[in-house]
């Protein structure tokens, strides 16, 4: 019996010793890793996939992070569960891209009560919680809509426009729509959501072509929906980029390839490759260093006839 108790004691001591050696985990330079819980919307588009790849590459162990990544698969309830799991795990910083703007009050209050700082990525929240996040990094969605609207107004002021909206209630959908409508609201003859994915964009465009036969311009809130719409336009016997002018937002490879071919006429970039900026902000937040409340990712615009194959070959996504 004494031997058994002694063996158990040695085993327990060894276990504690190993735990002391491995917790908290250390990076390659010997520094303690910053534990980050990151919740992504899903993989609804090429843009989202590129953004996820950038986040994972930047929040790596080599860069000083211990990343717990959660894919919400397009459902807010999954994302809320992930955020609560991060609280339970005791992460140092929580970062996430909110699927929609509202519905976060309770979980954000729980995060705040736990004393865990939040870094928002890509989209913002509409909440009653005071100071729900420390900082945000992403694109200026309203400016993206404005840039699209300005180009249409300058080149096709009399266009009859169908608008393919992103996921309703998301920051990207709300702000891109507001920005575009500042210039072209009076020309919009119909709207429908394509949920930021290609298949839904195709289905919505099929219905729109039947309902609005005089439509001659499409504004799609992202490239993937625009690419789905192109399939529907071709199936209807029309020529995309000619019979129906197409303006989109994102600048993913497939979208820019369609731009080169003349099937998309104008793209407002929404650059997804800003994982390095996210990592820098998280390090500063963890160290309690001052950060800007808002951090804008710089975007560009691309027009058929001026964008080149060489430019496409140099793109990172």
Account of the protein in words:
With 317 residues, this protein is of the alpha/beta class. The chain has two domains: 31-139 and 272-286, Response regulator (Rossmann fold, 3-Layer(aba) Sandwich); 141-270 and 303-314, 3-Layer(aba) Sandwich (Rossmann fold). The protein contains eleven helices and twelve strands. It has helices at 2-22, 46-58, 76-89, 105-113, 141-155, 171-184, 198-211, 223-235, 253-261, 275-286, 309-313, and strands at residues 34-40, 65-71, 93-96, 118-121, 135-138, 161-165, 188-193, 217-220, 245-250, 266-269, 294-296, 301-303. The strands form two sheets. It has a six-stranded parallel sheet, sandwiched between helices. The chain has a six-stranded mixed sheet with strand order 7-6-8-9-10-12, with helices on both faces. α2 packs across α10 and α7 packs across α8 (223-235). The radius of gyration is 23 Å and the shape is elongated.
Brief sketch in words of this structure:
The protein has helices spanning about 1-20, 45-60, 75-90, 105-115, 140-155, 170-185, 200-210, 225-235, 255-260, 275-285, 310-315; strands spanning about 35-40, 65-70, 95, 120, 135-140, 160-165, 190-195, 215-220, 245-250, 265-270, 295, 300-305.
Question: What is the helix tally?
Answer: 11
Which CATH-level-2 architecture of the largest domain?
3-Layer(aba) Sandwich
Sketch the major β-sheet. Answer: 6 strands, parallel
Q: Main sheet: which strands, in order across?
A: 2-1-3-4-5-11
Poorly predicted sequence stretches spanning 5 or more consecutive residues: 1-24
What number of structural domains do the residues give? Answer: 2
Shape: elongated
Count the E strands. Answer: 12
Helix-and-strand structural type: alpha/beta
Could you state the CATH homologous superfamily of the largest domain?
Response regulator
Radius of gyration: 23 Å
Named CATH topology of the largest domain: Rossmann fold
Q: How far apart, in Å, are the first and last alpha carbons?
A: 65 Å
Mean pLDDT: 91
Give the helix level as a range of percent. 40-55%
**Strand fraction band?**
15-25%
């Amino acid at each position: 019996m004494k031997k058994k108790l002694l063996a158990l004691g040695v085993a327990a001591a060894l276990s504690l010793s190993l735990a002391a050696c491995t917790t908290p985990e250390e990076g390659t330079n010997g520094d303690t890793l910053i534990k980050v819980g990151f919740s992504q919307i899903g993989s609804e588009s090429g843009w989202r996939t590129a953004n996820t790849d950038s986040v994972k590459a930047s929040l790596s162990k080599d860069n000083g992070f211990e990343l717990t990544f959660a894919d919400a698969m397009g459902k807010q309830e999954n994302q809320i569960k992930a955020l609560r799991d991060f609280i339970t795990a005791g992460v140092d910083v929580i970062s996430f891209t909110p699927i929609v703007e509202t519905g976060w009050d309770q979980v954000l209050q729980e995060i705040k009560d736990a004393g865990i700082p939040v870094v928002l990525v890509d989209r913002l929240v509409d909440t009653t919680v005071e100071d729900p996040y420390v900082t945000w990094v992403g694109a200026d969605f309203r400016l993206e809509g404005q840039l699209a609207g300005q180009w249409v107004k300058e080149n096709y002021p009399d266009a009859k426009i169908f608008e393919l909206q992103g996921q309703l209630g998301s920051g990207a959908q709300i702000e891109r729509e507001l920005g575009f409508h500042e210039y072209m609201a009076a020309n919009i003859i119909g709207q429908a959501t394509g949920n930021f994915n290609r298949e839904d964009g195709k289905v919505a465009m099929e219905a729109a072509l039947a309902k609005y036969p005089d439509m001659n311009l499409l504004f799609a809130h992202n490239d993937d929906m625009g690419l789905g719409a192109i399939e529907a336009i071709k199936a209807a016997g029309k020529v995309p980029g000619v019979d129906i002018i197409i303006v989109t937002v994102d600048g993913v490879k497939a979208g820019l390839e369609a731009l080169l071919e003349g099937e998309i006429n104008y793209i407002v970039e929404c650059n997804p490759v800003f994982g390095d900026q996210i990592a820098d902000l998280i390090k500063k937040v963890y160290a309690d260093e001052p950060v800007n409340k808002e951090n804008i990712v710089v975007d560009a615009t691309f027009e058929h006839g001026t964008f080149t194959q060489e430019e496409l070959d140099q793109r990172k996504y």
